[in-house]
């Protein structure tokens, strides 16, 4: 039996691209797409660990700063929420209208990266794409701007362009490099690698537990399906509910069960006026 | 050509039940399931108008109160968020583990309705189901507890049981009825009907615009598909994106377009380390 | 015995000015300066009732709007907090550096009125001063901007200048007047009078109870001091603590008492390393 | 010339006790009482660094936890706000009714320490007093409860009582000691010393700058007043305004100046109706 699981957003996008190109060698379960994975690990986990990485690497005061979050997927919304929770005024940048609209209604300022570049004190990329902060932006940033990535690869910040634009570079604290751009400085954290992994301890065990439970159940599921052809498969829905139920129990939280009358009501269409 | 659209969560559940029972007479597009519908109208619209209905009917001070929200679907999470935003300590009750877990990680207290019944000053039902607050709960509530529904029918609060349990009933303000239960009172708002429709002006135009845009486009879509058999159909995905884009424009918010390099990157699997 | 009490911020400022000018005819207790008054009535009371007045007069969706709050005193911070709680992106304008700094660290955007005038969808004045939104600002506002006052007199918005600048004026809903400025409109609520009093039911009883308790105790105190000369006097500190204690009891909230050891520790300087 | 400054809340309380006992040897300026000190350093600084210390020492997920904050002074309110901002459900304990009332209206659950002891996953003391979490509480805590102090001395948690009650103790991570109480464990962080100093980098430079500016100006002030008798003195008001103004400038934030007409209006009592 051969098969695998994938638990990152960008990883799943790429495996789908491989499947489309006919080069995927075995079946893969997209663990990232379990709701008990991406809604929790990506959102609450990385939301917290991004703040943690920022504090461990810089010890700056977040309150009173303008923070820019590029990307309002699960990671981006977690990071935006936690930065706001620590007292930052948060700007969100997006390419998808629906997510941009959601960010606006969640009370964030929404604007283009080009406009945000002039306003931010701290920038986080969380897009899974490349050159989100790039050669057109560095020259417009405030003196002292801090750049960090919590998305995927070290492509999100266009580091080669930053290298070319700067006259010098030096390490001022572990994980903090100062680039001189004329009379101003910008600070790149963790060489544009995932800040929460590099400068903090990555996501807490109390949220990874659900991600790993998904992994284990997905592998067990694959073992029971030896004839699956190479493609990207969703996590069985029941896994999600089971894991959420176990997690609540572990947290000591009790919720209700529907009564028989309620189950019946949910499935019918005659009652009510 | 015959066909229809449905823009409530409970309505769609019931139409699906009708389709399953083979009694649906024509095709229906589930407008509620457009993300530009339920994420906005249900969440931000009803979240606000529930608070509005509460204030218009009672003029109580929300700050310092314990508010209980039954249901953490799109309506429930909107209501919970806005009550917290007005200074309430919010408790969420759920029957689905995943939603209960989400509510807990969003910082709400999560518990059973039976436990919450003793703690709440204000109760909102937002479930689409029946007897969510019922005969087992009224007797344990605090003197002065306020009961309101922003879910669907006036079934969510078990009013017949409240009538039976109380010794008297009187209207003390428009939309506010006092029920005497021994030495205590509970106040039922708007006879358990949708509070935001009864006591306020329902959801604002600035969020209904998207719901109605979905309706119009769905009807136009049905007109182009005269041979569709009776069933419940999703809103075409492109509608969602178009409506979100137009809405952002109307709000004066500008977002980014992916560059060609970014579109290419999003579809490939080789770059990055 | 002659004497009085005053329970507004602006009223106390003016009585102090009268005392300074030697024209105050009898002693006045500055009830507004009781912490159980201004911290609660002004902040939580007006914070809520400002939102209430806005919704009753306009029924706009607050989520996604940019709201500008002029003044970050007790009223202003209450209004800013509640608008944020309803999903607005909030800008604060101030003249006192310390308050401006506090607003920034509370996560608000802080800027001059001239800069904010171009960005706001909704404006609230809460300053107790005059012409805070004035002739230099109206011309730069967005089409559709809404102007409201929850500060003191109808001086805070420079209405004569708005009248002069506009080509026409009409009432479009109760409490909502549209002024045409070239091709744009701005909407003035409640003729610039206190919006929460005009369009809603003013502050809730559950916060006015503390203000009125202060009034009664202040009058009782004055009756016991028949020889007080005309001046503005503070509320006796003990009133504040008594009222807060009674209010918590009425809310059913229990707090701790210091132990004897804790009282002793609080008054000494030797323990601890 | 002899004199000093003091920049902690507890330090000032003790210096006042010394002055009262006639043992204070020289004049001291209570720098802590400058608003640019306690409102910022104590609130926003310690609020953030308490979270930082918690994450560095434990790497737990804050979202979904119940956090108990003992004390709602400037430190306590900062800590409560930031824990809520990271997704905790926060309980506040107080001995002063007014602060308890404020915490309730800020949306926190307010209860006695004895009640909170059973509910908390994480406890922070921020009182400046002793035995706030003590022998009566440890036995009722949940398995896994975490105890930390960000108030003053290591007296706030009654460690001797914890030592006596536990059967064993071991270090499981730097700054984390597990105490076994029957079949349960509680974890004491940093031996009950200031967590933000022990496990993180204390308060950020960007908030200490104001505290230190106050120190320097206070010392300069003392040098100009060589005849001051031993006592505790307030910071001159003008310092506060100057420091706030400079800080805003350093942050690049611009605020308004009152116009001449506004200054005049603020000092008179005739205009307005």
Based on the model shown, name its key terms:
homotetramer; 273 residues; alpha/beta; 11 helices; 43% helix; globular
Largest interface (CB < 8 Å) = A-B, 62 and 62 residues
Radius of gyration of chain A, in Å, reads 21 Å
Overall number of strands of chain A: 11
* Biggest sheet descriptor of chain A: 8 strands, mixed
Strand content range of chain A = 15-25%
Instruction: Indicate the multimeric state.
Output: homotetramer
Q: N- to C-terminal separation of chain A? A: 55 Å
The spatial strand order of the largest sheet of chain A comes to 5-4-3-6-7-10-9-8
Secondary-structure-derived class of chain A: alpha/beta
- The tally of helices of chain A reads 11
Low-pLDDT regions of chain A:
none
Helix/strand order of chain A, N-terminal first: EHEHEHEHEHEHEHEEEHHEHH
Average pLDDT taken over every residue of chain A: 94
Structure description:
The structure is a homotetramer. The first copy, chain A, is built from 11 helices and 11 strands. With about 270 residues, chain A is α/β, with parallel strands linked by helices. The first copy, chain A, has an 8-stranded mixed β-sheet with strand order 5-4-3-6-7-10-9-8, sandwiched between helices. In chain A, helix 2 packs antiparallel against helix 9 and helix 9 packs antiparallel against helix 10. The longest helix of chain A is centred in the N-terminal third of the chain and has 24 residues. Chain A starts with a strand and ends in a 7-residue tail after the last helix. The mean pLDDT of chain A is about 95. The interface between B and C is medium-sized, with 30 and 30 residues.
């Amino acid at each position: 039996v051969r098969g695998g699981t994938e638990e990152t957003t960008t990883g799943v996008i790429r495996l789908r691209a491989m499947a489309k190109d006919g080069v995927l060698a075995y079946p893969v379960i997209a663990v990232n797409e379990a709701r008990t994975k991406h809604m929790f690990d990506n959102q609450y986990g990385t939301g917290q660990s991004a703040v943690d990485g920022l504090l461990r690497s810089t010890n700056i005061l977040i309150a009173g700063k303008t923070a820019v979050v590029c990307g309002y997927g699960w990671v981006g919304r977690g990071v935006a929420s936690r930065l706001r929770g620590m007292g930052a005024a948060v700007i969100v940048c997006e390419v998808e209208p629906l997510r941009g609209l959601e960010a606006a209604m969640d009370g964030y300022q929404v604007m283009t990266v080009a406009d945000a570049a002039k306003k931010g004190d701290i920038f986080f990329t969380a897009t899974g794409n490349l050159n989100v902060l790039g050669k057109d932006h560095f020259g417009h940033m405030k003196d002292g701007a801090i750049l960090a990535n919590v998305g995927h690869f070290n492509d999100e910040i266009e580091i080669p362009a930053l290298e070319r634009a700067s006259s010098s570079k030096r390490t001022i604290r572990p994980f903090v490099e100062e680039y001189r751009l004329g009379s101003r400085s910008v600070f790149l954290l963790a060489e544009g690698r995932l800040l929460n992994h590099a400068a903090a301890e990555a996501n807490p065990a109390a949220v990874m537990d659900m991600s790993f439970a998904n992994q284990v159940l997905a592998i067990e599921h694959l073992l029971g399906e030896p004839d699956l052809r190479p493609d990207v498969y969703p996590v069985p829905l029941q896994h999600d509910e089971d894991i959420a139920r176990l997690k609540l129990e572990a947290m000591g939280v009790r919720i209700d069960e529907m009564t028989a009358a309620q189950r019946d009501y949910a499935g019918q269409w005659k009652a009510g006026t």
